[in-house]
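Retro notes, structure queue

What went well: the backlog is down to a handful. What didn't: a couple of records were mislabeled last round, so from now on we paste the full input next to the output in the thread. Example, using Gfo/Idh/MocA family oxidoreductase from Microbacterium deminutum:
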Amino acid sequence: MSAVGIGIIGVGVISDTYLQNLASFPDVEVVILGDLVVERAREQAEKYGVPAHGTADDVLAHSGVDLVINLTIPAAHVEVSRAAIAAGKHVWTEKPLGLDRDGAALLLSEAAAAGLRVGSAPDTLLGPGFQAARRAIEAGRIGRPLFAQTAFQTQGPDLWHPNPAFLFAHGAGPLLDMGPYYFSALVSLFGSVDRVSAFGLKASEERQIHTGPNVGDTFPVEVPSTIQIIAAFDSGAQSQSLLSFDSALERHGVVEIHGTEGSIVIPDPNQFAGRIAVVEPLGVLRDGMSFDQPWIEIEHDQIEIGRGLGALDMVRAIAEGRPHVASGELGFHVLDVLLSAAESVSSGETVKIQSTVAPVPLLPAGFDPFASTL
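Corresponding output:
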């Protein structure tokens, strides 16, 4: 085999990091870019040396494309991904997999019937940071995992984004914008979620744009801008998660896992590397003993890597006949959990999760994205 041909649909801001990283992986080659605005596709193609550009239909019709990377807006994810499956292409999609269960389930069933694969962001799960942390936990470094605490809190993207309204609209908010990172990590560590209880609020019913050409314009806040979620997993583990666009205190990427024999902090699930450290129990305390607990750093590879890693793993997994890590099934279960959290906010009741997902595999040992393996 030679490098696998990739076509990208949607060349907005996030396409830059995909194109930069994919160009460094010998096993794949981006052969065409497509966008609603063809001129934008042309500019990106020229910038990154991609040989062809056009519309989404041009990408789907391209004979050299085996895998479509879907970087469209969330509302179009299912439609574009289904079109790629209908065209006989494997699909990697940005998160979330879709915005409703029925559409996402239909996508997965059509892919299965066609013998094609679906992968879904985030692919930060494949980064050396999360992989090393998960291996440490599975090796018993903290004993049996019991519960987790995660936090993402910020003043909100309206402070820096020139067109932030969509991030506060139905299908977004901190729940669906940032939640996939945290709950993909938790499901990878603890397995399927059994039920959730959640509480949400809005700091205000409308917000203001603070940068760009529309400074001063206001827009409605359609969904909770702060949400807190308690999740119970089939394994018996539990988690507590805060997702907020209303916090004066900026704090990102907090993931703590607490077990029977210690606690571990793991990297930001929106990053591919970061700190891993363990604290051990104090033991029996006696008068005059210190409560100080030293953090024990766990060293791991800090490879410069980024988005596109999940698509590479899909390509190799297809060739090797193994499951890929960031699967469509994982994306569906996480979507189900997040939608259930939104339903819990509305109803005030605990919501039982209907879907499950198989244990999420680790990357094969020695996985080197910069090697030529096909």
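Agreed that this is the format going forward. Reviewer comment attached to the example: The longest strand covers residues 145-153.
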